[in-house]
Amino acid sequence: MPYGLLREITAMTPPFALGRLLGLPAVKNEIDLHEAVLAGLPADSLENLIDLGLDRSQVFKLVGARTTLQRRLKQHGTLDAGESDRLARVGRIIALATETFGDQRKALGWLQRSSNRLGSADGVRSRSERKPIDLIATEQGARLVEERLQQIAHGLFA
Q1: Full-model pTM
Q2: Chain-centroid distance, C-alpha 140
Q3: Is 76 left (phi over 0), alpha (psi -120 to 50) or beta?
Q4: Is residue 87 within 8 Å of residue 41, measured between CB atoms?
Q5: The dihedral of CA 18, 23, 27, 31: what is its sign?
Q6: Distance between CA 9 and CA 37 in Å, rounded?
Q7: Which portions of the chain are predicted below pLDDT 50?
């Protein structure tokens, strides 16, 4: 992905929007978000994504081991840096999709629907359709989803 496009995507999802989505009002900029992730996000932030309408098992699959996350939720504990980073990635994609579609319900619907344009070269249809929500399990997959959302936002390959 060209650096300019990545900067444009980042500019579309300000850290405070992501902070609000994850229930982190102290996050006002990129450094705040970075430090919050390193320190460990509250496990209760997982519930914010579940409350949006994501399936609990889907959130666990994207963020970390189910039993560990359940224990941390029960104890109102803190996620480790890796889990926090993955949670922030999921939140970033949801925030970007919401901005792209202008509606959180539409954004979540798009994330859950299979797309034959994800993971294909130059917009050529791939043999297997992928759900954007499944791709965001990795940073590379999240970049593909961000790229597709950017194309939709600019009316390309709609």
Answers
A1: 0.82
A2: 12
A3: left
A4: yes
A5: negative
A6: 20
A7: 1-12
